[in-house]
Amino acid sequence: MAATSLQSYTLVITGAPYSSQAPQTALLFARAALAAGHTLDRIFLYGDGVHLASALSAPPSDETHWPVEWAKFLTENAIPGFACIASALRRGLVNDAEQKRYELPASNLLEPFIIAGLGEWVEGTMASSRVIYFHAGG
């Protein structure tokens, strides 16, 4: 039997929760990867995927709260989660610094997510042995 080589992954999520399966599929993959002994270097949210980092999401009580599920997963496993700043600003997602910068009435970034530039994506492509994209499809 051949030995399994352990990998490190950066996951890029571009599909929004509740309108695509991308965040759900990515979370299943992430859990399975960790269970198999692989590592996750970072999660990067891009495009509509940044909705996963919104603290203002409030799904019905009989549905899974994907932003909270992801926040718990990241916190429990000490994995950094980044939301692309350009995608976030276009979609009304801001942290405290951007709220002040643009003089907005509130911030709505869900912890432990961090707003960051594409440099975090680039670093992930260089640091990880694999980068996997989870798109909205269609």
Automatic annotation (TrEMBL):
GO cellular component: sulfurtransferase complex
Primary residence: cytoplasm
Keyword entries, A-Z: Cytoplasm, Transferase
Subcellular compartments: Cytoplasm
Pfam families named among the record's database cross-references: DsrE
One Gene Ontology term of the molecular function aspect: sulfurtransferase activity
Gene Ontology biological process: tRNA wobble position uridine thiolation
Similarity field: Belongs to the DsrE/TusD family.
Protein name: tRNA 2-thiouridine synthesizing protein D
